[in-house]
Design goal:
The complex is a heterodimer. Chain A is an alpha/beta fold. Helix content of chain A is 32%, strand content 25%. In chain B, helix 3 runs parallel beside helix 5, helix 5 packs across helix 7 and helix 7 packs antiparallel against helix 9 (212-242). The chains are: A alpha/beta, B mainly alpha.
């Protein structure tokens, strides 16, 4: 099992946002879906120890997170935050940063290509990119760590519909080429269905539904995922445009 | 050098005429600073008179123990004052106290060890007072910037931590900016000294009848000494205070705004 959460409770900003959550996340692609304030982003932050739970335990591949070297964990389980937060300098500087911390070189052009950016972007100033481009650079610099798991926090929430579709294609392509597991947080149940093998629904910090058999893009709906599709129908279409769900999760 | 002029209380009272000008401007422009001006005048009178008696005793005793006590008391009050200027830094008092104490001690030891001043209260008390005062201002500015920048850059810091950076690597750009904020004002005033303004020690010596070059040389020594002490205070305060923002597990204590 990739991650196992055992009766995890967690707070943020002084308020309890996860209540007694027990959950098993297998290898492959899992989506954590839920509305604003459901605790999904907080859950994601617990998985690479950007935060620790108030109570309960979390295991990664059978080992307690607390027993692992936190810096090695973060290189192996790389998180891409909801909003771009690049370092100053060029795109290449950003992509090289993580590997440089452990004295490793990286093929910047390949990382950009994996993230759906042309190699000419390497020399561009990071702060002059569009939000969508910055989001892809965030993905590229996470991939430069050669992670086994990607944690993706609303990777398309700041993007318009067209860019969102392209990022989804990139993620699907990545999974196929790199055999990488990911846990993706989204408020968009349609996206959860498109991108994952398994969907976990959170509401007000509690798990309210789990469904396996999410279908990859282009395939027919799985016959046994009625609950997810019912939820998807009930969910209003997410707003498009910049930072549609900044307060989410 | 001629004998230092004997300043009478009447002359001090006459200087209040300029305070009256400041009060008039405050009233005219409705700045509502009349109360603060009055408090500043009274406090400065009482504090300087009291410290005048204390220094008189220290000079008479000629021992260094009282010098150490005086500098320590100034460091405590300095840390307390600077803490209020950096409200975004949790538990800032201790880092500031250590910073001011270290800056004062290291600077005084160095000026004696380098043969700049003899180890007597007449030199160490005024120099120590200047060191603590300037260090307090610089450390407060640096910590204020640190607190504001950590809050404003929480997203960037967490994104860097998520790449496997240590906490000190993640806050390094903020630390660098904070240190520059603390030290740059003194560097700027050192650059412009003698052109835009005359520094206090030189003015005091000239008024007291010292030869101009003697006043200049003493002022230069103090400016150079202060550059070192301000750097010591700023780096100590910032390096110690940055730890209050992170956990041993390289996590940012204050979470970014998104939930």
């Amino acid at each position: 099992m990739l991650f196992e959460l055992d009766r995890v409770s967690a707070s943020r900003g002084g308020a309890r946002v996860l209540h007694d959550v027990s959950l098993a996340l297998p290898e492959g692609a899992t989506c954590i879906a839920g509305g604003s304030g459901s605790g999904k982003s907080t859950l994601l932050r617990l998985l690479n120890r950007l935060a620790d739970p108030d109570a309960g335990g979390i295991a990664y591949r059978g080992r307690s997170l607390a027993s692992l070297d936190v810096l090695e964990l973060r290189r192996e389980v790389a998180l891409v935050p909801q909003l771009p937060a690049l370092l100053g300098g060029t795109v290449a500087d950003n992509v090289r940063f993580g590997p440089s911390l452990v004295g490793r070189e990286v093929d910047v052009a390949r990382m950009l290509e994996l993230a759906g950016l042309p190699p000419e972007f390497a020399d561009r100033a990071a702060e002059r990119l569009s939000v969508g481009e910055q989001q892809r650079v965030m993905l590229a610099r996470a991939l430069a760590l050669e992670p086994r798991v990607l944690l993706l926090d609303e990777p398309t929430s700041a993007l318009d519909e067209r860019s969102r579709g392209r990022v989804e294609e990139t993620l699907t392509d990545l999974r196929r080429r790199l055999d990488i597991s990911y846990v993706l947080v989204t408020h968009d149940l349609g996206q959860a269905e498109r991108l994952s093998d398994r969907v976990v629904r959170l509401e007000a910090g509690r798990v309210v539904g789990e469904a396996s058999g999410g279908r990859p893009p282009g395939s027919a709906p799985a016959p046994d995922d009625h609950s997810v599709r019912a939820d998807a129908r009930a969910s209003a279409a997410p707003p498009t445009g910049v930072a549609a769900d900044e307060g989410g999760g | 050098m001629s004998r230092a002029p004997d300043i009478t209380l009447l002359e001090v009272v006459a200087a209040l005429g300029l305070v009256a000008v400041a009060t008039a401007v405050s009233l005219w422009q409705r700045m509502r600073l009349e109360g603060d001006i009055a408090i500043a005048v009274v406090r400065s009178f009482l504090q300087l008179t009291a410290v005048g008696f204390v220094i008189q005793v220290i000079f008479r005793e000629r021992g260094l123990a009282l010098v150490v006590v005086l500098i320590a008391v100034m460091a405590v009050f300095g840390a307390f004052t600077a803490r209020r200027r950096a409200p975004a830094v949790p538990r800032a008092f201790l880092p500031l106290l250590i910073a001011l104490g270290l800056a004062g001690a290291a600077t005084l030891v160095l000026v004696v060890a380098l043969g700049i001043f003899p180890p007597t209260p007449q030199y160490l008390v005024p120099v120590g007072g200047m060191v603590v005062g300037n260090s307090m201002t610089a450390a407060a500015v640096a910590l204020n910037r640190l607190g504001d920048d950590v809050a404003a850059s929480a997203r960037e810091v967490e994104a860097t931590l998520a790449l496997g950076a240590t906490a000190s690597q993640a806050v390094r750009p903020i630390v660098r900016r904070s240190l520059r904020s603390g030290v740059i004002p003194l560097i700027d005033s050192t650059k412009t000294t003698g052109v835009i303004f005359f520094p206090g020690t030189m003015v005091g010596m000239l008024v007291a009848g010292a030869a101009p070059f003697a006043a200049v040389r003493l002022q230069l020594i103090l400016l150079y000494v202060l550059l070192g002490s301000v750097a010591i205070a700023s780096v100590t305060a910032v390096v110690l205070a940055q730890r209050t923002f992170v956990t041993p597990a390289h996590q940012l204590r204050e979470a970014p705004a998104t939930a």
